[in-house]
Amino acid sequence: MTNATDPRHIEDLLAFLEGSSSPYHAVAQAAHRLEKAGFKELRETEEWTGHTGGCFVARGGALLAWYVPADAPAHAPFRIVGAHTDSPNLRVKPTPDTGSAGWRQIAVEVYGGVPLNTWLDRDLGVSGRLTLRDGTARLVKIDEPLLRVPQLAIHLDRSVNDGLALDRQRQTQPIWSLGRPERGALLRRIAYEAGLDASDILGWDLMLHDIQAPSLLGAEREFLVSARLDNLVSVHAGVSALTSAADDWSGDGGAALVPVLAAFDHEEVGSGSETGAQSPLLERVLSRSVAARGGSGEDWSRALAGTICVSADMSHAVHPNYSERHDPDNHPLPGGGPVVKVNVNQRYATDGTGFAAFVSACERADVPWQRFVSNNAMPCGTSIGPITAARLGVTTVDVGVPGLSMHSARELVGAADPGYLARALREFVMTG
């Protein structure tokens, strides 16, 4: 481990990654850390009155948390850290039991931009959320080698290394046993693992996950490799920044700030859901927090006018084998600190004001930082940044930890960068 790596942060991040095999598990992990730091969970169906200190709302795969200093006026501006809990993967279909040629298989659907070859020949478990007959939900996680998507042997596909791929339907159906398809077999196994009767389960949101544990890699253990680094590194950094700010908050005699973490679901498929960034969830929660402190509509508008959002998502490090696909003058590297992402076509929401706000926070936190802009000849990804900027009308800057193998079943970042990001975010939410 390099000297720049924060051992306590990376140890906690490894545990967070291993425990967050689905967005629902990520929310549970984040909520556990917030509760340990003294944050209180609020129910959306209950009345909110006069809440100060740390609060959070959890809804499915989304979590919103904030800390209100005791002396914060109702019009205090927010400092928002935006992230997302979901990652590209394979999700179980509503009728999962299928098979072919004497094999029992599970029917899955591709979720998000998945490089399918990275899911081949990996030991896969199942995790997610079960919805029961009484309307309650139960998390489930089978963290053992239950499934596998087998690759076709090279003897039967000599052109496999030339880029010829099988069709997506055949390429993604995992095997789990021999025999004829048996209706309800997977659900019975899931129910057994969750300590339930299969007849009590009426709905589910299940997905596959690679059971290989996250780890450090490299000659000096300077890299972190794991599934779901995009974007759980940012979620974890946001939780760390918020709990640290709440623990150390002392105020400076001036106008207080209200730090916020907004971890959305479904970013990888466009954010268009009740728990996605396109929903009114963030706006409703923050406006209710203003009203709970006696604030008016005028206070809400004043708070938004002074608000800044950092949208934190994974970014691309320069690839040593394909450097020509990157901007020739911007080559972010793992270990060099978070990058500020810029795209003039608003695929990222960064402008000069947001750029300066985040870089200033990095400088105050003594954190190195880098720049990212796409090669003009390559399409540019996007994030929740432009969505948040458009919905709330607030200054937004897109940032991220640079890495390789984005959206792969196993991604890579610099081991020092998650700690750098958390330090920069803490400074941002504390002082703006």
Automatic annotation (TrEMBL):
Cofactor annotation: Zn(2+)
InterPro entries for this protein: M18_aminopeptidase_2, Peptidase_M18, Peptidase_M18_dom2
Tree of life domain: Bacteria
Keywords: Aminopeptidase, Hydrolase, Metal-binding, Metalloprotease, Protease, Zinc
CDD domains per record: M18_DAP
Binding site for Zn(2+): H84, H155, H407
Cellular component, GO annotation: cytoplasm
Pfam families: Peptidase_M18
Known EC number: 3.4.11.-
A biological process term (GO) from this entry: proteolysis
NCBIfam families: PRK02813.1 (NF002759)
Family: Belongs to the peptidase M18 family.
HAMAP family the UniProt entry points to: Aminopeptidase_M18_2
Protein name, entry field: Probable M18 family aminopeptidase 2
Protein's organism: Streptomyces sp. R21
Gene expressing this chain: apeB
